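To close the section, here is one more complete example, presented without commentary so you can practise reading it yourself. The ligand is pyridoxal-5'-phosphate.
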Amino acid sequence: MDGPPTVEELTPPERTLMGPGPSDVHPRVLKAMSTPLVGHLDPSFIDIMNEVQELLRYTFRTDNQWTIPVSGTGSAAMEAAVGNVVEPGDTMLVPSNGYFGDRMADMARRAGGEVVTVDAPWGRPLDPAAVADAFDEHSPDVFGFVHAETSTGVLQPSVSELTDIAHENDALVIADTVTSIGGVELRVDEWGVDVAYAGPQKCLSCPPGASPLTLNDDAMDKVLSREEDPRSWYLDISLLEGYWGEERAYHHTAPITNVYALREALRLVAEEGIESRWDRHRRVASALKAGVEGMGLEMNAPEEFWLPSLNTVRVPGGVDDGAVIQYLLDEYDLEIASGLGALSGDIWRIGCMGHSARRKNVSYLLAALGDALT
Ligand code: PLP
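Output:
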């Protein structure tokens, strides 16, 4: 074997992150991450856990007791939601109008569920009438939908209409709020969402690693009365309950630093006020949208379903989407992203999330994109 490898001290480039996430991390969050570790059962950490749970409830707009950060990325929170709520033999209804509905479907299948879909084209939200028809046809036990589809830049409106349909049919509702939490209006309790999962790296401007999840009592009743254990030990909510519930007993070693980060990111949400924060995202993203439209570019999502936190812009004919992305990165240290799945090559995805949702970033992005296109 050779000697030790020579690896230089870490000096990542200083990017401006305007892609689909992660977004720019707030300096206060970075500072919180450089504070000393305590043990995951230290009394001071138990206090921090309580604070994070309280701040998460505020941010989700819920009183759900069972509101926690899941150790892992948004997909871990998604798998915790789907893998615990869907029991073998259950039917789960999922949307087919974007990339993340497919991921939900995959997880439901792995959990032993039967998957049925409610269809809408990529780039359109679900129509409540189509959801009602799907309920009539399939009688699903669980209905999942994506509140803010990062692949298409579409915001699902009329959430209460969808949850009403599900509840009239005795189904539980799981909402993907990864790209909406802390950035666009989200009211878990008022809208009748039974389970919501999210990610910290988008509108909360926090590094990935501890991902918000909330379940109401109806969902917890189902989870805690399952006949068969969930297939994942790590994400089994009945076991996680031992750590995040009353007992505070060891389950796994929580990612302490990520929990610190989330605490600070959520403190910033509370300081700004959740509704002011939704307003800021809309205001700043409106300037971004007006700017790209002023350059003669076209938004992919129709105005009424436009998602301020993730702006999808159609790539003009004859332009190489990847070359523009590379130019922005090379010349401006600026990250935006290409389309996913059915929209690959057709759109750019420009995030306007959390600490990245600032007028200064928008001006910079517009100038850089204008340069790239001339
Ligand atoms: N759901 C949506 C809508 C997302 O945008 C993402 C990530 O971009 C995920 C789920 C998965 O989250 P992660 O990549 O953090 O695992």
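Once you have examined the tokens, check your reading against these statements. The pocket of pyridoxal-5'-phosphate is lined by residues 20-21, 73-75, 78, 100, 146, 150, 176, 178-179, 199, 208 (CB under 6 Å). DSSP finds twelve helices and 14 strands in the chain.
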